[in-house]
Design a protein that fits this description.
Blueprint (H helix, E strand, L loop, with lengths): L2 H49 L12
């Protein structure tokens, strides 16, 4: 039984797991931040539409 090798393998697995959790946390934080930004953009677009409701209702295209 190779106890030092097993210990090193377990330590490496724990380090990889900790790194994966940290990266997932960063990705989740980024997703939350981008989501909040999208909500803010949608809210500002709704505000613009309530101020000028006649804009953007029709599109005239000629080819």
């Amino acid at each position: 039984m190779d106890i030092p090798g097993l210990s090193m393998a377990l330590a490496q697995t724990k380090a990889q797991s900790d790194f994966s959790v940290a990266m997932l946390s960063k990705a989740m934080d980024l997703g939350e931040m981008l989501g909040e930004g999208m909500v803010d953009m949608i809210d500002s677009a709704a505000m613009e539409h309530s101020v000028t409701p006649y804009l953007g209702g029709n599109i005239d295209i000629s080819v």
